[in-house]
Amino acid sequence: MKRIEGFHDREKASRSVFCHNGIAYELIPEYGDFPHEFEFSMYSGGCCDKEDQLFLMCRDLEHPIIMLDAQGNYQKSFGRGLFQEVHSICVTPGDTLLCVDTGLHVVRELTKEGEWIRDFGNPGVPSDSGFEKDRWRRMQRRGKIVPTDVAFDKGWSFWMGVESIQRAAPPFNRPTGVCVGPKGDIFVSDGYGNAAIHRFAPDGTLLKTWGGPGDMPGKFYVPHSLWVDKKNRVWVGDREANSIHVFDENGEVLAYMNENLLQPTGIWADDNLIYVAERGGGLSIFNMDMDIVAQLGFYNSPIRAHGMCGNKKGELFLMPLSTYDRHFLMKLVPVTNVLAS
To answer: Hey, how many other C-beta atoms are within 10 angstroms of the C-beta on 33?
Structure first.
């Protein structure tokens, strides 16, 4: 009998290229050289600094922030004891890190050495948006619902909490994303227990809050991510409403999209394009005229992501979190040597 064996490194040896409308990326499904102890670590978000060093928010609270060099080699971890439920991260013009803690209801600023600088928000104190995290438990006690399995706890319970939000409240109630605009203002998406976008001055003064619950331009179900482009426009991905909103710095709606999307979850931009990662398996790319130039992937394709960032070479990093089993950090590399039409 002949014993047939496959290629042990088939994922690394084969190529997966996603292309549309003249734009193409090769997927590197396993990126980063990590110590063995990080084999099953999940990353909810990330950012690159000026040297293309990659900072990841890790769900392992023993190592909440992980740093890789520009070649993907592990350098260090830090932030232990400072976080409860990490979500996203960005680098400021002052080369510090803004870290969103959903569980503590804060955006925490640290140095790259892990030293605490300041907090935005009140640690451990959620604002009053009407949000009830355990609304389903109250309804269960009243006999309104009868959960049948664990999936109910993780799915419908989340939705029922979102539906309890009544207003756009002040900062924060389970925030989700953070970004610094070209003028130095800090913008935060307050999305899991609120339905709001907040704008802060560089000194931390709250300048503006806008939003509120709803499924229409300027209203949100779950504003999960945001990015401020070079023209100071605020791009917001509402994951559960499956929509993208674009605002000026004062919250006026400039553009809106709620079709042909696969749950926008992560946003990043360079000087020419805006990239929107979609948890359902897609990547939508916009130009500075706010037009779609390409949409890669398909429902449940391998490019599922919870968080996303990019570097100066145009490479994109995807953090699937729990949306893609056994793949925790992926990279999309621009390619030109394939037919991309």
So the answer is: 11
* Rounded Cα–Cα distance for residues 221 and 56 (Å): 26
Using an 8 Å Cβ cutoff, are 239 and 162 in contact? no
Sheet holding 65-68, edge to edge: 43-48, 54-58, 65-68, 74-78
Identify the helix (H) or strand (E) that includes residue 98.
strand 97-101
What's the pLDDT tens digit per position in 82-134?
999 999 999 999 999 999 999 999 999 999 999 999 999 999 999 999 999 87
Of the candidates 76, 122, 115, 83, which has an alpha carbon nearest to the alpha carbon of residue 100? Answer: 83
- Distance of alpha carbon 247 from its chain centroid, rounded? 18
Residue the block writes with tokens 């390409």 = 294
pLDDT in tens, 175-228: 999 999 999 999 999 999 999 999 999 999 999 999 999 999 999 999 999 999
Q: Note the pLDDT of residue 341.
A: 43
271 within 8 A of 230, measured Cβ to Cβ: yes
Place of tokens 């999960």: 224
Q: How far apart are CA 41 and CA 250, in angstroms?
A: 38
- CB-side neighbour CA atoms (13 Å) of 152: 10
Read off φ and ψ for residue 266, nearest 5 degrees.
-135, 140
Give the HSE-up count for residue 29: Cα atoms under 13 Å, Cβ half-sphere. 16
**CA–centroid distance for 79 within its chain:** 19
Alpha-carbon distances, residue 198 vs 48, 109, 189, 194, 275 (angstroms): 23, 16, 7, 11, 22
> pTM of the entire structure?
0.93
